[in-house]
Amino acid sequence: MDTQKILCSLLCCFLISSILSGQQAVQAGHHDNVPSNIRPLKLFVFGDSYADTGNTNKTQVAWKYPYGITFPGKAVGRFSDGRVLSDYVAKFLGVESPIPYEGWKSSSRGIPLLKYGMNFAYGGTGVFDTVLPGPKMTVQIDFLEHLLRDNVFTGKDLERSVSFVSFAGKDYFTYIVTNGSAEGLQSFIRTVVNQLAINLKRIHGLGVKKIGVTGIVPFGCLPVFTGTSSLQQCNENYNSFLGFHNVLLKQTVEKLNKETKDSPFFIFDLYASFTSAIKNEGSIKFENPLKPCCLGTSAVSREILLCGRVDENGAKLYTLCENPKSSFFWDVAHPSQEGWRAVYSALQATLEQDFLQY
Question: Which GO terms describe its biological process (predicted)?
Answer without folding.
Answer: lipid catabolic process
